[in-house]
Amino acid sequence: MNPTPDAAIVRRASPWLMLALLAAGEFLGMTLWFSATAVTPALVAEFRLSTGQAAWLTMAVQGGFVAGTLASAMLNLADRLMARRLFAVGCLAGAVATAAITRAAGPTQAILLRFATGVSLAAVYPTGLKIAAGWFRDRRGTALAVLVAALTVGQAFPHLLASLAGPAGWRPLLLVTATLAVLGGVVVLTFVREGPFDAPAGRFDPRAAARVYAEPRTRYAVFGYLGHQWELYAMWTWIGAFAAASLASRGAIDTARAASAAAFVGVGAGAIGCLVAGLAADRIGKARVAGLALRVSGACAAIAPAVFGSHPAWLFLFVGAWGMSVVADSAQFSALVADYSRPEYVGTALTVETCSGYLLTMLTIRVVPSLAAVVGWRWVFLALVPGPVFGAWAMERLKAQGSGLTPAGRPARPG
Predict the structure, then answer these.
(1) Model confidence, pTM
(2) Looking at the domain 10-194+207-400, which fold is it?
């Protein structure tokens, strides 16, 4: 019997070419995430947002993402539907919701559209991880690190646009990111295929999601991810405000563009950290690398008060170092979950992981500005330190589990 066209393509395709195309799609699609956050001051003025409503511009995306990933995990969508089509639909739906904000009648409508964007991105981020995992087995840590690096730059990109365009350009910025997301969906749908290690779809199993927490190795991997997420999005969301307050304490007047630049550095530098961590993880162990990254990022959160008010050069150096370490471990948690999950339900396991982590981010994103109003921006990031401490503990517990075998029967190297 002649092979199907897709099967023939998979046999001829280079995994690294597929990864490059998928990374391009993730970069383009994930520009939607911080598209509104990057222009928060302009949206505050446009819609007369309160401090709480301004926080919801980002929290609504997290909430929508949690709702979308929860539904996807319960229904096993990432394992039962063609992944690249699901990816493309998510990009298109998110682009429509983001573009619609330019015509929103008020703050409630804008926040609801951000929620819809988050729901849409639930079909983009974990689905992309699943596709990448299907192309790689021995170099999975590196492959997922490349993917997370790409989406990290994508999330940072609106901050770069905002620093160049200024507050008046918020509508074109949203339309540009919406266009980029559509392009990302087209790239993945047209050129990317599921890989040779992508297991046949499993039948619907309502218990597949619960098994992520029932199995000790996947449980500790998710625990590490939770500690990581406690810190990550609160830092990404509010590092610009921290930088603006730091610069203002030195007498700077126009801090808006500098704050956007600091946010771009803080988020974008993570791409370097992801790539370095990915290369190291496949050599010395994913859990070991993730634990080291957690310790470094936790230390950065702890020294933030000492950096506050320092020379701008030191401030940006600190933001870059924290940005590199705070997301360096992200791909390794996903790689560990993929390694230790049943092959036919990898998509569901990754969706459960991301759902759990992003649910937690809603708490810290909201707590940070409220806490800053009480203790000031100098001290606020100390509240993030417990997350990486907990995550590092989870990685030690995972290493203590021993090498063992993954559910696919391959030797595992958790340490």
Answers:
(1) 0.78
(2) Growth Hormone; Chain: A; (1.20.1250)
